[in-house]
TrEMBL record:
<dbReference type="InterPro" id="IPR006710">
    <property type="entry name" value="Glyco_hydro_43"/>
</dbReference>
<dbReference type="InterPro" id="IPR008979">
    <property type="entry name" value="Galactose-bd-like_sf"/>
</dbReference>
<keyword id="KW-0858">Xylan degradation</keyword>
<dbReference type="InterPro" id="IPR052176">
    <property type="entry name" value="Glycosyl_Hydrlase_43_Enz"/>
</dbReference>
<keyword id="KW-0624">Polysaccharide degradation</keyword>
<dbReference type="Pfam" id="PF04616">
    <property type="entry name" value="Glyco_hydro_43"/>
</dbReference>
<keyword id="KW-0732">Signal</keyword>
<dbReference type="InterPro" id="IPR023296">
    <property type="entry name" value="Glyco_hydro_beta-prop_sf"/>
</dbReference>
<keyword id="KW-0119">Carbohydrate metabolism</keyword>
<keyword id="KW-0378">Hydrolase</keyword>
<feature type="signal peptide">
    <location>
        <begin position="1"/>
        <end position="27"/>
    </location>
</feature>
<dbReference type="GO" id="GO:0016787">
    <property type="term" value="F:hydrolase activity"/>
</dbReference>
<comment type="similarity">
    <text>Belongs to the glycosyl hydrolase 43 family.</text>
</comment>
<protein>
    <submittedName>
        <fullName>Glycoside hydrolase family 43 protein</fullName>
    </submittedName>
</protein>
<keyword id="KW-0326">Glycosidase</keyword>
Amino acid sequence: MRRRWTTALAMIFAFTLVLALAGPAPAASPITTSIYTADPAALVVGDTMYLYTGHDEAAPGGTNFVMRDWHVFSSTDATTWTDHGARLSLSNLPWAGADAWAGEVEPRGGKYYWYVPVNGNGAGWMDIGVAVGDSPLGPFTDAKGGPLISDSTPNSSPLNIDPTVFTDDDGQAYIYWGSYYGLRAAKLKPDMINLDGPVITPAGVSNFWEAPWMFKRNGTYYLAYAANDSGCSQPGYACIRYATATSPLGPWTHRGVVLDQVSSTTNHPAIVEFKGQWYMVYHNAAAPGGGNFRRSVTLDKLYWNADGTMQKVVQTSGGGGGQPPSGTNHALTATASTSYVSPWETLGAINDGYVPASSADHSHGAYGNWNHQGTEWIEYRWTTAKSVGKVATYWFDDDQGIDLPASCKVQYWNGSAYVDVPGQSACGVAANTYNVTTFTPVSTTRLRLSITSRTGYSTGVLEWMAL
Ligand code: FUB
């Protein structure tokens, strides 16, 4: 079993080297940069959100997990997080030897049960144990004195990791877990430390790899999980897919991808409602010095469609996706116009001051001219002349009919005609960043961006700054 994971990790490392050359995706701000954290589980108690995380301690360049304990973080605004330290460690589970992997906490009867996968030093590799505490912060002690689930559990997963526990409205608790494409589920007894009945293999969960997360909303059961099929992620990486069901043990119907691959090879979801806002909590490799074994937990807002499906989460930049250049942005006081905007798009998005997370970030609207092709323009006008010597353009790319342009150029109104601004530098067409074009400053009441599409595509802009 261990040899298979070692092989898998070696493959992941190789893929990482390749993909590092392609550049990481934009990344959100981590909950902490003091330590590396992974595998979040979220729990809301009163006005506080708790995150139970793993703790990556691999050395820089490390090629394997080094995980010895789990931390608890709390927040009352989902923005500022307090690290309460290592509230559970391998030493609290005397039968466990290593590998403090992805756990989850479930409350019941005033107690908090922390389900954790560990190397149990027994037959096989990973087991799932349970610790219990009297508060969300513990202290937590071993609740069972040995594994709840191991390789000797009938019909257990090929790799017994990543437990998620869910309690239905009738008080019945369920545990789901697994990896190596082996999702498993079982009822828990009211004592929360024993299985109640057989282990089942849930049906209909497409491309399950690991990291299940179970919850219920408006009477529908949701199961999010890491998948690593080529339909959603590059080799060695994972996306988060989800399925729904009308009963807690399924059968499940696959609904789509809710989180694209992240900058770490592993991906791990926790989906939770807190103070009226839903969040996707996950990890990536975006923190300074981060990597596949030095991950960081982060979170982004999650939005619902009216039919109960989840919109794909936009991974916010927090600095990773390109920051706007400094200076006075005259675009904010300009009136925008264009040669053409699609009726369903928003020209006003280009000068609303929003900092996009990526070129796919449509959350604040976008200018788009689908299905026009060739050259179109956007323009700013001011009632009094402005001195402008730089523009910054953040392109919109929906991976459908709108793509990055072939070329662009900046023009201004010289009093009688539009002419190119003098001495302009390259008009960049890169995705996921502000493309800055500098030129000899002009004093003008009208500035224009002329955009020429690639063959077969239209173009779009998320933000256009005039500085
Ligand atoms: O952190 C170790 C393992 O990596 C977790 O158990 C998986 O979910 C993956 O994130």
